[in-house]
Fold this protein.
Amino acid sequence: MQTKRFDIVIIGGGILGVSIGYFLTVNSDANVLIIEREKIVSSHTSSRNTGKVHAPFLYDPIKKKIFAKISFLGYNMWETYSNQKKIQFKQDGVLEIAKQDKDVKILKKYVEWGIQNGLEENDILFLNEQQTKAIEPNVRCNGSIYCKRDASVDYGLLTTTLKNDYLLAGGKLLNLHRVVGVKKQKDSCLIEIVTINKERKIIDSKYVINTAGGHSLDIAHQFEVGLDLFDLHFRGEYWLAPQEYERLTSRSIYSVPKQQNFPFLDPHWIIKSDGHCEIGPNAVPVFGPYSYDFIDNLKNFIPKTKEIFYKKGLWALFTNREFLSLLTNEIAGSLSKRVMIQRVKQFLPALDTKKFNTRGTAGIRSLLINEKGNFIPDTLLLKNSLSLHILNYNSPGATGALPLSAMIVQELANEQVINKVTKNNQLWNIEDIYSKIKF
Ligand SMILES: Cc1cc2nc3c(=O)[nH]c(=O)nc-3n(C[C@H](O)[C@H](O)[C@H](O)COP(=O)(O)OP(=O)(O)OC[C@H]3O[C@@H](n4cnc5c(N)ncnc54)[C@H](O)[C@@H]3O)c2cc1C
């Protein structure tokens, strides 16, 4: 069997893998290959999301330090890139509302976090009930924050465009190939891949970057990295709003999460970049990272259930009373379309549940849990001598993909994994981005 050799292999062609590939090829002379199991890049979470360039006010600057920094930096970078490519970057802002009096205190904390994370004071304004009514007459709430520095984009399109730049700069892409095994050698890794026709091939790489999204933990385990971590998958579903609701609000409306530790449970009112509106996402527990339908969910049922019984961290979580009550009350409740829309009707009372009849595109979050059964709040960058694994890369992962990738490439140059960054990137100075995230 013929073995091809690369400087860097990236496993996974989602927005993160493609962004890293882009900076590696545009900023260095590394010989790079992206391996992607699907026919096109961005087939999973990277095109199955809400499409927001999130402002960083929701992220605790200590517990979610990386997410906070990359979310802040991502806004300008996506704006610059979209303008250069003439792709829509709709700066429409967002309203985060308080559904009850006690949420107002939380909103004030978000304003502080937003400013600590880099927002200017006039980017994020606290509005009382009347001030909110003045800008959004159909919204009912006890106060809100209006953040101007928030935008709507099509991340699937941005990833495909970035992939084209990556190819133009000399990067290689092997799609419809799935990584099934890795073998570490003294100074390189042998990566076993399989095609859809079950043909097996071996790729040799000096260094591997794992950006396999919902499968990233499985890949990390093959490198014996992150063995004390486990994952759980939640499908976020959406319902499309009828056209008559397109002028109901001028911007997307989010609400203060009922459970601060699980901000992904509360559905939002979303205005997408093309102007259509949706409600979502909810969080349906599923057994696999691609369990969009019943068949895939069933296929993963036995392996995942076994894991829950035999793996310490998952067992600890599933015997935790607080989590069980969350699972039965909040998560199970969100399965129903009626309950989901009811949650949004609390702040947008004009909605009529009967008018929501078409599902949107669901995406799956893969959340990591440690041995004690606690959810990991931030993304994790775990390394060994020949590989880097980006795990728990959830929202605002699409927003942060460009700055995180620039930082990673600069770090690889500092560590001499790739040659000193030589070529010029006309859009960004990656040393500068590195220093903003690292320090
Ligand atoms: C419902 C939902 C809404 C969201 N909304 C937003 C939002 O509005 N704004 C925001 O910033 N973020 C949002 N996010 C988060 C964001 O979408 C993700 O953080 C981001 O897309 C993750 O990108 P990725 O490249 O790491 O993963 P993915 O897009 O999942 O890419 C991983 C790739 O790896 C490939 N792969 C996996 N295993 C293998 C293998 N063995 N061999 C080869 N290839 C493999 C997969 O096919 C896939 O293409 C949302 C997420 C969800 C679930």
